[in-house]
Amino acid sequence: MFSGFMMNTWIVASIVALVAGVVGFFTVLRGSAFVAHAVPQGAFAGAAAASLLGMNTLLGLGVFALAAGLGIGVLGRSGRHDVVTALALVVMLGLGALFLSRSVEYAPEIYSLLFGEVLGVSRSQVAPTSVLALVCIAGVLLVYRPLMTVSVVPEIAEARGLSVYRMEMLFLVLVALATSMTVPVVGALLMFSLMIGPAAAARSLTDRPLVAMTLSVVLALLTVWLAIAASYLSNWPVGFFVGALGALSYGMARGWLFLRKPLTRSGAITPGGALGT
Amino acid sequence: MGQMSTLVFAPGFFHSGAVGVAVAVGGAVAVVSACVGVFTVIRGQSFAGHALSDVATTGGSGAFVLGVSPLTGYVVLGLAAAAAMDLVGIQRARGRDVATGIVLGAGLGLSALFLYFDTTMRATTGATMTILFGSMFAISSSTIPLIAVLAAVALGVTALVYRPLMLSSLDQEIARAAGVPVRLVGVLYLLGLAIAVALSAVTIGAILSTALLVGPAATALRISRRPATALALASLIGVGSVWLGIVLAYDSFYWPPRGHGWPVSFFVVTLVFVFYLFTEARVLHRLARSRAALARLAARFAVHRQARIQAGG
Amino acid sequence: MPGPGASDAQSDPGARDPVLEVEGISVSLGGREVLGEVSFYLLPGQLTGLIGPNGAGKTTLMRVILGLQAPTAGRVTLAGRPHSSGRRPAGYVPQKVVLDPDMPMRARDLVALGIDGHRFGIPLPSRSRRQAVEEMLEAVDALHLADQRVGRLSGGEQQRVLIAHALVSRPSIILLDEPLASLDLRSEQEVVSLLARIAERQKIAVLISAHEMNPLLPVMDRIVYVAGGRAASGTTEEVVTTEVLSSLYGQHVDVLHVHDRIVVVAGADPGREPRSGA
Ligand SMILES: Nc1ncnc2c1ncn2[C@@H]1O[C@H](COP(=O)(O)OP(=O)(O)O)[C@@H](O)[C@H]1O
Ligand SMILES: [Mg+2]
Question: C29, C204 in Cβ contact below 8 A?
Fold first, then answer.
């Protein structure tokens, strides 16, 4: 399980989990799960296009992910966010259908782009994934506070001179970046599970934002490691385990929250305000 | 006149059985999707609608494994996913998208597993493609009765709860105060949505399912705020996009490079999106008509004219 | 209405300069003039009520002051300088803030965002920031809420945390949009006296909008009354009179004093439509 070619898998998958945990934290905080689903799946169409034209798949992924993200941001100014996201997604997939209809020997490669090919990560994937991951994580940490302000109290943020629209665009670019690097590994469909499940679980476990982000990374790492091990042993697709573990950790965290709630509630009873003093 | 029509409809269009089925089924699915979709958009459940179609495809791949009819798989898993979504709290606005995402993630994981079994047990790599993209020209005419029944059920459920649903979609509190069983109405609607989505996913593919559910309805709601008008308009846009898409896809067999058709889903999605962009242009136009912009334009025009007059001497 | 100078000398011998001046502001929204020729000013340490019926343009006026809405005419001067689109020394508590109860964020985290929420980088632990946050929570009587999840607090508690968030960057003005709406009677009195205390102790100008002036009567230094797209400002005795309000509403209204309360009623003759009287 830890032989030479599997080492690449462990390294790259850990990097992917790191990014998914960090970006996923903000995705869940902002209620952008649909975007996290649409951008990777739309980007899959770009990968199909690139493989058809004989170009670098990563490039196709990047271009389509950016187009989907920025398109959602621009159209979202005047339209409803979920509607615009759905439309951006189907347009990308429609293009994907067009490109795929032109290609002949697509099926296995497309399957892996959709569902991930974690066990066959090559050495050449390590360097670009690391670079993209670094850029992505540095980006999130750099805009952590303004992004947080804009996500939590948008009106106040605007009044303080922060542009909600610009921060939104920036966030979408970060999602696109995260997508481009993770889709070849965990696949378009399950990259999204990795972003949502751990982050959603993490926020049930703690009240502190930075701790929640860290927990989200930890849970994402655990999910990926367990999924790879299980996939290696059972030969079943890694995507299945990622999806199942995501749902499981979310369910467990909700259960924990449910059990803990009575405690918090009694602690939340506040002494009556002695304001007149 | 005859020449005109061969320009638009490539030879054989009206004699092809596959085209006939596609036109009939596509039209019916478009109407059902548009009507259900108006509520989906008003309720802000586009993500749920899309997720249901993705999870329904899981049923499709499961059906391949079990050897039952794909439509059965689609409907069964579609309904199961709808139930799961209701359980995790999709009806509340808060945390809705995360709940949807968790169900979708689990469904997609299952999908991966089923497809893996498909490919290892039966070596049918085509399953992935069929499920994701569907094919309008490959609808077997034997499924038509079942499709018709499901379409009627979806429309019937929506019609049944039309008024309480509209009320609770616009404002839950008011609806509850008026004695509407908001939860029950929501669940019934979700069932209708699941059936409509499963139906369109199995016939025309998961992509088109979402496109037809959200696109025409959103476009119509931006043109008209009146529910009845929006329903009619959405159906019109949906049917128009599907039929025009079928014509173009059929014609594309004769486009260079000859003999290689373009997929229907590409055309339909593009048409749906273009219709939506028209309303975007309308919205932008309305913005540009605001007084400030007009004043700026007028000022710029005056400067231009001044310059021209001076240049002209 | 008296000009800035007159009222200034009268009510405050220290002759402080206004921190904010609004001069001849007009705003059109959707092709309709919502506000026309609105002028008033705010003094440090004073609590001003921005009173008017629903839809009068109170929120719009606050958005103009904050630079979120461009006026069609007029200007806003902050501390003697025309305000630019950059960061302004005004705290803001919007009318409706929805804080997700699922969000992992404590009251102290939200207040801390008020200090450096616009800066790049992640927040590193800092003793001075922690102190500033706790001082401010203390000032709004919310220190005991510091470690609670902010989304799970009650409406009144969230309000106090948001006030701390707005004050923690030490602005010279704080704008509160309908802070009393959806509060019960006791929380209402608590918030009102809290704001009066803050204005006095921290010497900042407080502008509170409300559709009901009575809760503010005991603490309000000045009033800006908006109705019918126009505004009148001054002390309560100057502004809340039958003559001034009738001219604002464009119809006859009566100002009645009942015990300690003021009631504004339209159309004294109950058999007559208010509008037909004009
Ligand atoms: N974006 C907008 N477009 C058109 N009209 C608007 C817009 N925002 C507010 N208005 C109108 O401006 C008026 C003043 O609104 P507002 O400032 O919110 O009132 P208040 O806060 O006093 O209740 C209302 O009649 C409202 O309908
Ligand atoms: Mg208001």
Answer: no
**CA C209/CA C216 separation, integer angstroms:** 10
Please, what are the averages of pLDDT over each run of 10 residues along chain A (277 residues)?
Answer: 76 91 94 91 83 78 91 88 90 83 62 70 82 93 95 91 91 92 76 90 92 95 92 86 89 80 44 33
C57 lines ligand 1 (CB under 6 A): yes
Of residues B150 and B20, the one with the higher pLDDT is: B150
Q: Verify whether ligand 1 is closer than 6 Å to residue C175 (CB atom).
A: no
The reply to whether C239 falls in a domain is no
From the CA of B178, how many Å to the nearest CA of chain C?
22
| A89 domain residue, yes or no | yes
Q: What is the mean pLDDT of chain B?
A: 79
pLDDT in tens, C192-228: 999 999 999 888 999 999 998 888 988 999 999 998 8
Residue with tokens 């204005």: C199
Full residue range of the structural domain in which residue C166 is found: 96-170
Residue C70 in domain: no
pLDDT (0 to 100) of residue B299: 58
The domain that holds A261 is classified in CATH as 1.10.3470.10
Q: Is C223 helix (H, G, I), strand (E, B) or coil?
A: strand
Task: Output the pLDDT for position A17.
Answer: 92
**With a CB-CB cutoff of 8 Å, which residues 87-116 of chain B face chain C?**
94-95, 98
β-partners of residue C264 are C255
Q: For chain B, what are the domain ranges?
A: 2-312
In a domain, C188, yes or no: no
Domain count, chain A: 1
For a mutational test of ligand 1's pocket, the pick from C59, C64, C68, C176, i.e. the residue with the most ligand atoms closer than 8 A to its C-beta, is C59
From the list B124, B106, B110, the residue with the least C-alpha distance to B64 is: B124
Domain count, chain C: 1
| Residue range(s) defining the domain that contains residue A223 | 6-275
pLDDT in tens, B90-115: 666 667 888 888 888 888 888 888 87
Asked, for residue A166, whether it belongs to a domain, the answer is yes
Angstrom distance (rounded) from CA B268 to CA C147: 53
Q: Best mutation site among C32, C33, C34 for ligand 1, i.e. most ligand atoms within 8 A of its Cβ? A: C34
How many Å lie between the centroid of ligand 2 and the Cα of residue C177?
7
Distance CA C133, CA C136 (A): 5
Does C16 reside within a domain?
no
Q: Which residues pair with C209 in a beta bridge?
A: C50
Q: Residue C89: its chain A contacts at CB < 8 A?
A: none
Superfamily (CATH) of domain B2-312: ABC transporter involved in vitamin B12 uptake, BtuC (1.10.3470.10)
Q: Can you give the pLDDT at residue B77?
A: 86
Whether the complex's predicted ipTM surpasses the cut of 0.90: no
